[in-house]
Write a structure and sequence with these properties.
- The protein is 17% helix and 16% strand.
- It has helices spanning 2-20, 62-72, 78-85; strands spanning 44-47, 110-111, 121-125, 128-133, 144-145, 156-163, 168-177.
- The protein starts with a helix and ends in a 52-residue tail after the last strand.
Length: 229
């Protein structure tokens, strides 16, 4: 009974953790307005029926439809498409409800943004695209590895995606300010290979000199006794 209760509690904790980062950036952790509690809501919508280059693609093929729309757009990016076709924007067009006034972060080694729905995603350092995929959930993208060389001197890290599970697409975009000290980090989880430790030098003892072989004993001379007649 106790074991069953423990398993139930553990499962509930996992569900709560997953729900808390269902469709928002979990790492680096963005700053939200005071009192704002639901970062899982889309910050804007996109009418899939008004996208360019999608004639003849049925609505239920959202991933294919978005890929065609991005290819037909002038910017050829998800971000450009979102900026142009987003409606009902809450917060800013670039960052949604996340704030750029929070603490500055070092450029991270990876971005953890649980992809709650099928659809394309992108990550940017300022105006440099550092990652893109047509279907981050369906293609099991997981965490995005960051090429730090593309983020040198950048002031903003931005991650976004479009959920195409409904006809009126859900848009998500989170930002964090960059410029903090430190080497950046990862969100944890998964196995890492530890760096090999430097082995201390071992001084070998000098080899022992072989002992000289023992000299053979000298033969004993017998004295001949004179026989008496």
């Amino acid at each position: 009974m106790v074991r069953s209760s423990s398993l139930a509690v553990a499962a509930a904790v996992v569900l709560v953790q997953h729900a808390s980062a269902h469709t928002n950036m979990a790492f680096p952790k963005p700053e939200w307005p005071a009192g704002f509690y639901n970062g899982n809501n889309p910050y804007a919508r996109m009418d899939s029926t008004k996208l360019p280059g999608t004639d003849g693609i049925p609505g239920y093929q959202g991933v294919k439809k978005m890929a065609a729309a991005i290819a037909a757009s002038s910017e050829k990016t998800l971000r450009g498409l979102m900026y142009k076709y987003a409606t009902g924007v809450q917060g800013t067009l670039e960052c949604g409800k996340t704030l750029m006034t929070g603490p500055k972060h070092p450029v991270p080694a990876e971005i953890d943004f649980p992809w709650g729905h099928p659809g394309p995603c992108e990550a940017w350092c300022d105006d440099t695209k550092i990652f893109a995929n047509e279907d981050c959930q369906g293609n099991n993208v997981g965490k995005i590895k960051v090429d730090k060389s593309k983020c040198a001197n950048a002031k903003r890290l931005q991650a976004m995606y479009a959920g195409v599970h409904v006809e009126n697409y859900e848009l998500y975009s989170n930002c964090v300010p960059l410029g903090g000290s430190g080497s950046g980090g990862s969100s944890g989880g998964g196995s890492t290979t530890p760096a090999s430790a430097t082995k201390p030098a071992v001084t070998k003892a000098p080899a022992a000199k072989p002992k000289p072989a023992a000299a053979a004993p000298a033969p004993t001379k017998k004295k001949c006794k004179r026989r008496v007649r």
